[in-house]
């Protein structure tokens, strides 16, 4: 819908309020409900929003180490703009109209901290190179019979999973909660987040959903909205949905794998497929893959942005630990799926469900395009068998501090995303590490309290 059509839609449907939101640096949605008059007035000029939304961490503590905003600048408003093409009604909230926004500027002078603006830039580069993207993120997450208050009261101990025991792809377990299960499927689809598949994964109360693929920006919008939408639908059923990458040492973590392919602009041909190649991979596909492998150590925090992300990236839990690729291999960082022409794609398996989809997709696409532009040769053989033992090409950084420091010092990261973004983002990750480094965990208490 264009501006005139949206105005007519508001008038004809007697719309009284409109919700809009944007993703912060952690991919968490922040926004407001506004009066239709305010909405219409801002369509041209933008909407002023206090820039502390990029000066807070995920717990609303103010960063003390970023240049972009802070006490030094007095936290002024910055202009965000609504993207009219993102209109969808929220079916579980009286069908209120909802829009996504970002802090991009028509003159190209975007706010470097805005993740959606960053992805738009990478998408524009891809457009200019003549490719159409098809991307999709899939998520695993744990469901608990808890509320925010019971979690706080119980201090996150003895929390009750939606269902007991390990039971992957269980028809029984989902039938036992069919109101929630079908609400997820139906309401998400109505909210223009069509679900390709929804099933239980292995672990008490864990679900997995694959979102139907779309071009990269729409796919990132859907993935970002998906997490909040699932949480909101879950609340209605007295359930808390957690997208932590790893909520307990004893169970597998939660992935946020990203599936990708490049197509001709008219979407008639999958450019990643070559029937004559031994792996059914085109040269373009191989350059894209080589680019991702090459850039991985430079961009890891964009795939694994929290302290907790690195607890998931451990051996034997279907999450990668090495810089590897393989055909139909679930122990490598990248899995190639080549079953037929239309479905041939690359799956980046590093991201957990705690990623910011805009940043993870920007990293995946930009590094793939880097491989294409520089015609990087795929000189790493695919891993056959156990990827955890294949250390020929190096291993992933073990924690957020190492990963963020490498990215902060990386010329490639700056070339791909600009100094403004790299500086801001890596400072926020180093801040995150500092918050964790000074905390005393229950692991330390159990290990040292009495014995040491
Ligand atoms: N679906 C799977 O391949 C399992 C993924 C695994 N749970 C992870 O965290 O990566």
Automatic annotation (TrEMBL):
Keywords, ordered alphabetically: ATP-binding, Ligase, Nucleotide-binding
First-tier enzyme category under EC: ligase
Keyword Ribonucleoprotein part of the UniProt annotation: no
InterPro entries according to UniProt: Gln_synt_N, Gln_synt_N_sf, Gln_synth/guanido_kin_cat_dom, Gln_synth_cat_dom
MF (Gene Ontology): ligase activity
Domain of life of the native organism: Bacteria
EC number: 6.3.1.-
All copies of domain GS beta-grasp, residue ranges: 13-108
SUPFAM superfamilies linked to this entry: Glutamine synthetase, N-terminal domain, Glutamine synthetase/guanido kinase
UniProt domain GS catalytic: residue ranges: 115-452
SMART domains listed in its UniProt record: Gln-synt_C
Transmembrane portions of the chain: none
Pfam families: Gln-synt_C
Keyword check for Ligase: yes
Signal sequence region: none
Protein family per UniProt: Belongs to the glutamine synthetase family.
Protein name per Swiss-Prot or TrEMBL: Glutamine synthetase family protein
Species, as recorded: Mucilaginibacter angelicae
Source taxonomy: Bacteria, Pseudomonadati, Bacteroidota, Sphingobacteriia, Sphingobacteriales
């Amino acid at each position: 819908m264009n501006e005139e059509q949206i105005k007519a839609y508001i008038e004809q449907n007697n719309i009284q309020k409109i919700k809009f939101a944007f993703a912060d640096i952690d991919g968490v949605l922040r926004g407001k409900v506004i009066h239709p008059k305010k909405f219409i007035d801002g369509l041209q000029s933008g909407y002023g929003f206090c820039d502390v939304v990029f000066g807070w961490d995920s717990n609303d503590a103010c960063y003390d180490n970023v240049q972009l905003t802070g006490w030094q600048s007095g936290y002024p408003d910055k202009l965000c703009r609504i993207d009219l093409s993102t209109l969808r009604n929220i079916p579980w909230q009286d069908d209120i109209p909802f829009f996504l926004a970002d802090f991009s500027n028509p003159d190209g002078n975007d706010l470097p901290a805005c993740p959606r603006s960053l992805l738009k830039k990478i998408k524009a580069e891809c457009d200019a190179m003549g490719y159409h993207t098809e991307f999709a993120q899939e998520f695993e997450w744990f469901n608990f019979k808890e509320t925010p208050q019971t979690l706080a009261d119980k201090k996150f101990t003895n929390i009750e999973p939606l269902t007991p025991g390990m039971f992957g792809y269980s028809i029984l377990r989902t039938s036992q909660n069919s109101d929630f299960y079908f609400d997820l499927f139906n309401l998400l689809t109505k909210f223009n987040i069509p679900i390709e598949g929804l099933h239980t994964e292995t672990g008490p109360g864990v679900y997995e959903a694959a979102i139907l693929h779309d071009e990269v920006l729409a796919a990132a919008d859907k993935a970002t909205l998906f997490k909040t939408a699932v949480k909101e639908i879950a609340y209605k059923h007295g359930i808390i949905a957690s997208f932590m990458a790893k909520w307990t040492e004893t169970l597998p973590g939660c992935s946020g794998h990203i599936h990708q392919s490049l197509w001709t602009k008219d979407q008639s041909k999958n450019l990643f497929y070559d029937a004559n190649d031994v792996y059914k991979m085109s040269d373009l596909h191989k350059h894209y893959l080589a680019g991702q492998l090459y850039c991985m150590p430079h961009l890891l925090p964009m795939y694994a942005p929290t302290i907790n992300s690195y607890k998931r990236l451990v051996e034997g839990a279907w999450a990668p630990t090495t810089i590897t690729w393989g055909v139909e291999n679930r122990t490598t960082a990248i899995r190639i799926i080549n079953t037929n022409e239309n479905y041939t794609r690359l799956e980046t398996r590093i991201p957990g469900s705690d990623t910011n989809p805009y940043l993870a997709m920007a990293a995946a696409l930009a590094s793939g395009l880097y491989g294409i532009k520089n015609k990087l040769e795929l000189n790493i053989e695919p891993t056959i068998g156990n990827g955890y033992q294949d250390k020929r090409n190096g291993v992933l950084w073990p924690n957020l501090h190492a990963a963020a420091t490498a990215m902060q010092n990386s010329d490639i990261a700056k070339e791909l995303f600009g100094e403004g973004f790299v500086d801001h983002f890596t400072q926020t990750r180093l801040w995150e590490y500092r918050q964790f480094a000074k905390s005393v965990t229950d692991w330390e208490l159990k290990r040292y309290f009495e014995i040491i």
